[in-house]
Amino acid sequence: MSGHSKWATTHRQKELVDAKRGAIFTKIANNISIAARKGGDPNSNPALRAAVDKAREANMPKDNVERAIKKGTGELGGAQVEELYYEGLGPVGLQVIVKSVTDNKNRSASTIRHIFTKAGGAFGAVMWNFSQQGVFMITQEELDAKKINFDELELELIDGGAEDIKKEDEGLTIYTALSDFQKMEDFLAAKNIKTESGEIEYVAKEKVVLSDEDKEKAEKFIGELEDNEDVSDYYLNTDL
């Protein structure tokens, strides 16, 4: 989701929960299973705790959550969930990295490739223009509820490992070096600041500006990625 408005994507995903609950649950369950490989206890596994929190926000049944955790820890049989990355050029030359969490890599590769080719794009090397960073989002509602002064918080965030901070109407987006991800996560937890999301993402080093016409083509392509249950996340080299 990096490289374009993560806030808009977050809102869109919440709106889709009722309309496409099954596909959303599949994505969430796969993410839980991947996180559970590092341990099935959310209290000692931050990645699993975050994935379970997302499941609760989407009103995912408790049985589904527990089954996804057991699948990740190997307690259940069946195909194992894999985390895969695909890179390529989308419509209008857009550079895209797609994160797929799936139990069928052949299906995943085939359906995601089809989305690219349908939009006039193709798989290809673009990873060179991206670097991994920690990305945290804090809503304006959370800042207001905690009566947090932005100027004061900004200085503390820098001390906490923030490399870049973007203030928008919806809230704050904080970027950290990969090595400072845990440091920032611990800092926000110690301050009792709830994050809308906190993940390691691919962020474009160089971005492009699209015309209105090209944005429409890009947004149609993004919509198809979001609707695919094998697509867990995606990263672009533009701001939409």
Secondary structure blueprint with pairings:
Elements: H1 6-19, H2 21-36, H3 46-57, H4 62-73, E1 82-89, E2 95-102, H5 105-118, E3 122-123, E4 130-139, H6 140-145, H7 150-159, E5 162-168, E6 171-177, H8 181-190, E7 197-204, H9 212-227, E8 231-236
Antiparallel strand pairs: 1-2, 1-3, 2-8, 4-6, 4-7, 5-6
In short:
It contains nine helices and eight strands. The chain has 240 residues and is of the alpha+beta class.
Report on this model:
- The chain is an alpha+beta fold.
- The chain has a domain at 130-203: YebC, transcriptional regulation domain (Alpha-Beta Plaits).
- The chain has 9 helices and 8 strands.
- A hairpin with a 2-residue loop joins strand 5 and strand 6 (171-177).
- Helix 2 runs parallel beside helix 4 (62-73).
- The radius of gyration is 18 Å and the shape is globular.
- It starts with 5 loop residues before the first helix and ends with a strand.
- The model has no long low-confidence stretch (mean pLDDT 87).
What is the name of the CATH topology of the domain at 130-203? Alpha-Beta Plaits
Shape from CA axes? globular
Cα Rg:
18 Å
Number of helices, counting only DSSP H or I runs of 4 residues or more: 9
Number of strands: 8
CATH architecture of the domain at 130-203: 2-Layer Sandwich
Structural class: alpha+beta
H/E element order: HHHHEEHEEHHEEHEHE
The residue fraction in helices comes out at 40-55%
Spans of at least 5 consecutive residues with low confidence: none
Give, in spatial order, the strands making up the sheet with the most strands: 3-1-2-8
CATH class of the domain at 130-203: Alpha Beta
Task: Give the name of the CATH superfamily of the domain at 130-203.
Answer: YebC, transcriptional regulation domain
Strand content: 15-25%
- End-to-end distance, in Å? 11 Å
Rounded mean pLDDT score: 87
Biggest beta sheet summary? 4 strands, antiparallel
